[in-house]
Structure formats: C-alpha cells, structure tokens
Design brief:
The protein is an alpha/beta fold and 323 residues long. The chain has one domain (3-12, 69-322): TIM Barrel, CATH 3.20.20. 48% of the residues lie in helices and 15% in strands. It has an eight-stranded parallel beta sheet with strand order 1-2-3-4-5-6-7-8, with helices on both faces. Strand 6 (208-211), helix 8 and strand 7 form a beta-alpha-beta unit. The protein starts with a strand and ends with a helix. The structure holds zinc ion. Zinc ion (ZN) binds next to strand 1.
C-alpha cells in the first residue's frame, strides 16, 4: 500500500550502517551509540537526544547531507512512502549560518530530485528549531527558514526537549516563519500535558501538532482540536519505544480518531525506534483491527494536511487512488 508521511526527522532517519560508515571515513569514534546488532542504543528520551546529536557528528557538510537524504528517501520508498515531509535543521546544517544553510539545502534538494526520479518519492522540507537550544537560537533557524521558503521548504516547526521553555517563548520565530508564507507545526503533548498542547495552538498558531497524544487527558481539548481541524502527526511506534505510552494497546490514536480528531501516522526517527511505515501500518491493523479503508483514510488525512502545493497533492491523491 502506498503511504504518506508527515513527521520524520532527516538525521533521525539515518540508517545506522550509513552513519557508521561515514564515521569510519572521518575517523570519528561514536561506537558507543550502537548496540551489538549495530542499531542505535539509548536509555530514555534525554539519552535519545544526546545519542541523536552524536549520530549527527559525521554529517559534517552538504555532501554528507546529500548522501543522507538519498539514503533516507530510498529506505522510505522501499516501504511504499510516496510523499514525505522531513524535518531539517539549520542547527545541524551550518550552525545557523544562512550562506552555509543555503549550500546544505541545495545538496538536500538535489538528492530529493534524484530520489523522486529514481524511487518515485516526493519530499518537502520543514525547517525545525530545537527547543532545548533556546528561543534565541530558534530565531536564527526561523530566519534561515524564512529566507529559503519556497517550493522545497514549505514549513517551519520545533522539536527537541518539550519540557524546556514555554511555547510562547518561541512566538517570535513562528511569527517570522508564518509571515514568510511557511505552514506551521510543533511538537507538543508527547511529554507535556494537555496545557502544553493548548498553549502551543494558542501561542504559536500552528495547524498541526507533532504527537499531541496527551491531549487525550482533557476531552474538552480533544473536542476543540477536532472542531478546529488541527491535525495530529501521531508516531505510535516512537511513543511505545520511548514509553510515552505503556504499549500499543494503550495508545490513544484510536480514541482520538473516534472522537473526530484528524490523525495521521508517521515514524518520527525510524531506525532509532526500530520501526518503518510498514511496521506502523501493520501494528495499527493488528492492534485496532484497522483494515485497508482506515489505513487509506490516514493517508488521505496526511495529504489533506500536507504542507505542499495543490498540484503535488493532486499528484499524490492520483497515486493513492490508482493503488
Ligand atoms: Zn518528532
């Protein structure tokens, strides 16, 4: 089945073998972030963030990001993904320097074009600031985003450690991105409670929320989200591995959907969580008895909420219908 994904971090999707090979080429020792089977290993969410940053060390320039983008898109396409929105960060691509960022971006866009021709997958980029780097650095990321908004960079968002700072601290950055014509999403309600989700929607005026699952603890908020048409980028496999939920059976995605919230499904950082879009769909089918019509509904919800132009959406819908 073809699949549409809205929430995947480019570096977080880096195949471990690719990162190991790159580290060897550059004589960087990051052997401590891998387990005996060669996968990424971490203890909890904070440790995950530091392992993530260590895995980024061999990604030293635009050429490395060109290779990364190609490797990631080939892997996604092998799981039937025909459209993907990937979080990319100026903090990992030139440290927030605009000229450097443009070089990285050109390399990634070049790889995206190649992947589209070779593997039939379309990628759009969402520039992300990193919450635990603070509101000042977020402005630098937002500036990079605003200056490069266009056909490839279509959105702006924020990831990182959710419990640091409040959403309103980043309003300046989100305003700047919005004024540049970018569409907005933000991680919230993965670790934070319903108040974090509500504040994010109110203060950052986002149309999508990354995760958002903890809104389930306030049903009035769930109804508001459904009413407002705010879309959740739900990543169940990620939530299970990081223990944001107790297990697949306890995941609130089915309850959210039944209450009228527009839910979509993504992998977040697939090799870190030992998941793929195939696994996500399989586990949803197995856990909640969702058949093909429901899974296709998730795909259509993702296309509707995608941060791309109408022609691209029409093209993806045609591919879904042909399947
Ligand atoms: Zn994420």
């Amino acid at each position: 089945m073809p699949k549409v994904e809205l929430h995947m971090h480019l570096e977080g999707a880096a195949p471990p073998a690719f990162i190991r090979g790159l580290a060897r080429e550059k004589n960087i020792d990051i052997s401590g972030i891998f387990d005996a089977d060669g996968g990424y290993v971490f203890r909890n969410f904070d440790h995950f963030l530091s392992v993530y940053e260590a895995a980024c060390q061999p990604l030293t320039g635009p050429e490395e990001f060109r290779r990364l983008t190609l490797a990631v898109l080939e892997e996604s396409a092998s799981h039937g993904v025909i459209y993907t929105e990937s979080f990319i960060s100026p903090d990992f691509c030139g440290g927030g320097d605009l000229a450097a960022w443009r070089d990285y971006l050109a390399a990634m866009q070049d790889a995206a074009r190649e992947a589209e021709a070779k593997f039939g997958i379309t990628m759009k980029g969402i520039v992300t600031c990193i919450r635990h780097f603070g509101p000042e650095q977020a402005k630098t990321a937002a500036h990079c985003a605003a200056e490069t908004a266009g056909e490839f960079i279509t959105g702006f968002g924020m990831g990182g450690a959710e419990m640091m700072h409040r959403p309103g601290d980043f309003a300046y950055s989100f305003d700047m991105a919005r004024e540049a014509g970018l569409r907005l999403t933000c991680h919230a309600g993965e670790w934070g409670g319903p108040d974090m989700v509500a504040d994010t929607i109110r203060d950052l005026k986002v149309e999508r929320i990354g995760h958002g699952i903890n809104c389930i603890k306030d049903l009035a908020l769930v109804d508001q989200i459904a009413e407002a048409g705010v879309v959740l980028e739900v990543c169940p496999g990620s939530n299970v591995v990081l223990r944001a939920v107790d297990g697949w059976a306890q995941h609130p995605i089915a309850q959210l959907r039944e209450r009228g919230v527009k839910v979509t499904v993504s992998t977040d950082d697939p090799p870190f969580f030992k998941t793929t879009m195939t696994d996500e769909f399989d586990m949803l089918a197995k856990t909640f008895g969702w058949e093909e019509d429901v899974l296709m509904e998730l795909n259509h919800a993702a296309v509707d909420a995608a941060f791309c132009d109408t022609a691209t959406k029409d093209n993806i819908r045609a591919k879904l219908e042909a399947a």
